[in-house]
Amino acid sequence: MSIVKVKDLYKIYGHGPAATQALRGVDIDVVPGEFVAIMGRSGSGKSTLLHILGLLDTPTSGEVLIDNKDVFKMTERERARFRLETLGYVFQEYSLLGEMTILENVYLPALCLDRDNNYRKRAEAMLDTVGLSERLKHYPNEVSGGEQQRAAIARSLINRPAILFADEPTASLDITSARNVLELFGKLNRELGQTIVMVTHEPEDEKYVDRVIQLKDGLVSKESQPSVATT
Fold it and tell me: Which CATH architecture has domain 32-58+75-224?
C-alpha cells in the first residue's frame, strides 16, 4: 500500500497567456519505508511537487493521498494539524531560531502539538540519534552548518512523522557535511524505517536512495533504482 499517492497532478501559476505550468499531470507512488529522491534540472517542477506533497502549496488540480487521506479535501485547520502530526520537513536553510538553544529548537514542534509531556526526553533522544548529544545547550550560531542541519533533522523527527520531506537539504553544506547528512538519512531510513522523500539536483546523491524519480518540464520522465546503495 502506498503512503503517498499522487494522481494527475497539475500546478499552474498565473493566468491567460502568461500562465506557467509547473506540473503537467504527475503520477507517483511512495511505499512506506522507502527513501526516494526527486531529481531534475532547475525548473523541472521538483520543488513545486515537494511543496505540494508537504502541504506547503496547493495544486491546481489532481489528487494527493497521504497515509490514505485525501489531504486537499481537508479544511485548512485539518491540514495544519495533519502536517504537525504526520509530516516532517528539512529545508535547505536550517530555519533554527537563534534565541533558542539547540534542544529548545528541537522540541518546539512537540510543544505545538501538545501530545504528551515527554517532549524534552524525546528531543534529547533525537539529538543523540543525530550525533548532537554534546550540543544541547548550544545556540545555533555556536555550531557548524552541518550541525545546524542535523539539529533541523532532529526537529523534523520529534513528532514521529510518517514521512520526512527534505528540499535540497545539503545545498548549503560543504562536501563532508553533506555526506554526513545523507549518511544520516540512510541510517534513519534503514534503522528506523523512516520514509523519506528528498529533492536534490546532485547526481552523486542517487547512491543513498532506493529509487529516483526524474522530472522534466513538469512531468515524470523516468524512474530508476540506483545500482549502488550505501550499506
Answer: 3-Layer(aba) Sandwich (3.40)
